Amino acid sequence: MSLHEYAKECLAESLLELMEQKSFHSISITELTKKAGFSRMTFYRNYGTKEAILLELLQEKTSQILAFFQTKQETRVSDFLILFFKTFRAEKRLILLLIQANLTHLLHESFQRNAEALIQMYQQHGWFKNEQVETYKVHFIAGGLIEVLIKWAENDMQETNEGMAQTVSTYLSL
């Protein structure tokens, strides 16, 4: 791991630890960098805001899910959904901290940034019946998935990944 990657990892973990202790908006950049053991310059070289750290963490997870399916020749919507819930179950701490800090809009933003890749994945696997509505449908599905994820996290992720995938699949009727 390069020093650059290590610094980003330390900043991210330090931010999450601080968010467990206090309000997100009361965390200063100075406090964050001191906890991480890096300078403010390192922070600003990598991020413009604290939100950017969280968004990058979410982007990594979303990109991993999409990259996995872009390499597959055939897959079902349920396979995507199971991986979605499995991935974010592993990130329960992050999701709950976002909810607590009233930052769930970052979940939406991370999916919106990957909307084009999501559309391509849907096309590749033939999940659309009508190509004219693709873009709207992908945004609709992405928004709904995020809201379901938030509610699932608020309910302590009691349902299995497969159970959540099955439930969501019935809503999509794809």
From TrEMBL:
This protein's record includes keyword DNA-binding? yes
Key words, A-Z: DNA-binding, Repressor
| The entry's DNA-binding region | 28-47
Record flagged with keyword Repressor: yes
Occurrences of domain HTH tetR-type (ranges):
5-65
The name this protein carries in UniProt is: AcrR family transcriptional regulator
